[in-house]
Each structure stands twice: as structure tokens, then as C-alpha cells.
Amino acid sequence: MLQFAQSILLVASALFPIVDPIGGSPVFLSLTLNYDTKTRKLLSRRIAINSFILLVASFAIGSHVLSFFGISLPVVQVGGGMIVVAAGWALLKKKDETDRDAVGRTVSSTDVLRDAFYPLTLPLTIGPGSISIAITLGANEPHHIGAGLLAILAAAIGSAFLAASIYLCYAFADRLAAVMGPTGMNVIVKLSSFLLVCIGVQIVWNGVSQLLRSLPQIAGPGMPH
Length: 225
What we know:
single chain, mainly alpha, 9 helices
């Protein structure tokens, strides 16, 4: 039972700083300024559910899926990191919201949920860093049925905790906006966008450096082959 609790804590503590729902809430709010509170909560709930499914699936079968397609984790980091950089750059270049009439406008749930998975869940909430960590944790778990099921259950509980924190931070992001004011929120959004670009570059570099280390060493002139 103690090991089970430790597994839950390991999953939650390893993933929470990477997912960072608190830091992601200003970015989420900047992308949903034209939604009313009810619609934003609906979208937050869908993102939380998508995040839960992504994390559990990455933990349980992620390594098998990558093996099937012959894809390595460093390649996932490079590809995903480039998407994160692109998303952060787009947010950084986005013009400030000046049309106050747009704030609080009701939109259809179909239009809202269209963006729930991409880009709001993947890569802005659950990015390549989170997925690679979940896959690594899953690959290191025992593969016999009993222990494997317990490990998946522990991962599911830890992921549920993360999903709940994502929902709370995103659904009530407008409270943060009310406290910070328009200028403060604009500063936070621009800083968060810049950090998102930096995180993407770091993820790309982590993947590239691992790929470079996997290359055979090239012998120089006069060196033994």
C-alpha cells in the first residue's frame, strides 16, 4: 500500500511542474477572452478530461506505440518542442485585445470544443515534456499483470489530481484577470508566451542533444578507426 501511494506521489510530483496549470492559466485566458464564464468552464472541463486521457494513455501504452512506429523519445521531443515554439511565438505576436464588446460573447459549444484538443490541450497544456515523462515513467514500471495494473491505477489517480488542478486554474482564470487588471494580464500573457517559446527551445535541444549523442563517433585524421 505504501508503494502504491509512493507511485501516485511520483506521478503527480513529476508531472505537475511540467504541466504547470497555474502558469498556463493566463495563456488560456488570453485565448478565450471572447467567451463568457459558462463557456470557459465548459472548455476547461473538456481540456481537463483530454489531459487526463492523454497522460494515462502515454503512461500505459506510450512506449509500445512509439516502438510500433519506430519513433524514439528524442524525436518526439524535437517534433513536439517545435510545435510549442510555434504556439508560443504566435501568442507573443498576437495583438492585444482591445474590443471590449467581444469579452463575454456567447459562442456555440461546437465552436468552443473544436479547439479543446488542439491547441489548448496539446501542446499548450500537455506538451511533449509531459508526454515524454509519462512515457518514461510507464516504461520503467513492472510489466507483469498485477503490478502493471496497480501502476496504471496509480498513474490514473495522479493524473486525475492534475486534471482537477487544470480545471480549477483554467475555469477561474478570469478571477486572476480581475485581480491583475488589463495591463497586468497583458504583461503576464507576454511573459508566459516568451517562456513558452523558451520551454519549446529547451525541449527541442534536449531531443537534439540525445540524438547527437546516439550518433557514432567520427574518427579524425590519423585516429584509429
